[in-house]
Amino acid sequence: MYPDERGNIIVNSPRDKIRDLNTLPIPAYDIFPMERYPLHRMVTSRGCPYACSWCNSSSIWNQSYRTRDAEHILLEIEYLIKNYGKKIFVFGDNSFNIDLKRVEEFCDLLIMKQLKIQWSISLRADIMAREIAFKMKEAGCYNVSIGIESANNEILSNINKSTSIEKITAGIRMMKEAGIEVLSQFVIGSPYDTLDTIKESIQYAKNSGCDYTNFYTVLPFKNTTQWDYVLKNGTFYTQEIHDFHTINPRIVFETPEFPYKDRLEAIRLVKKEGFYSNKDKKSWLFDYAKETSRMIQNRLPESIGQKLYLVLKSIYKLKVVKKNNI
User: Fold this and answer.
1) Using a CB cutoff of 8 Å and minimum separation of 24, what contacts does 57-62 make?
2) Where in the sequence of the chain do the CATH 3.20.20.70 domains occur?
3) What would be the CATH architecture of the domain defined by 38-214?
4) 290 Cβ partners below 8 Å, 6+ apart?
5) Residue of 40, 184, 43 lying closest to 118 (CA atoms)
6) 203-231 per-position pLDDT tens digit
7) pTM for this prediction
8) pLDDT tens-digit profile of 56-82?
9) 47 phi-psi bin (left φ>0, alpha ψ -120 to 50, beta other)
């Protein structure tokens, strides 16, 4: 995008996507202060084959899905360990387990190489397999985040989730049986959500057996069906996306079936259970916990540092986050 000689904004056509992500080199980690970070963050795929109503991944990547091979991922992991020490690995893929065969290959390599790292991912619970869950645990996976969004099957259908709460429940059970910590995530304000459907989700969250639960007020993004739904059926308070994160509480629209006062009540009920999350709320407590984790990892043997990090993380989640509704 650039201005021409008359000041008109010229938008370039989209560049071709990199078809083979295995051709990408290891990122230039050396230009970052890697010693300051308590985690190693990696991305092993681009895009998502699904098209959930609130997610703009499908519009960014044209609903394409490309992955790096397990061997390519291991090369980067070994590079990071060799140059910056063994830390917790967090994989930032939209859904790490779209291809279960790739997940199994990745776990087999970790086990064979005896790297003994601890790692966390986001995944779809509905396409989990029991044997894969147990292999993930053996390979060092200690935590997964799953987007449940709603416990109501009609709402799941409305947001194009392409699953059911029964399938999600089965996946959660597999991961809990394998000994993996589960973070469940829900949204307030999906198409045709009401206060009653949010109450249904709250009740499900309380009985799901998940270790942690976060509810978020949904924020519509342009080029998503959620945005189009609000334009057609609801009322925006602002359409300036950059202002969304300055609004507290983050209610940027209402619909006839889910008016503003009901949304406020939904947030109150979720806060009452300690489930409400505002990722944009900066907390000195979070900064302190993160900095403490970093110092601990730099001063203790790797294995002890990783275990202590997980203990601090659990204390922070249970005592600080829940208490302060962060």
Assistant:
1) 57/94, 58/224, 59/223, 59/224, 61/17
2) 38-214
3) Alpha-Beta Barrel (3.20)
4) 38
5) 40
6) 999 999 999 999 999 999 998 999 999 99
7) 0.83
8) 887 787 778 999 999 999 999 999 999
9) left
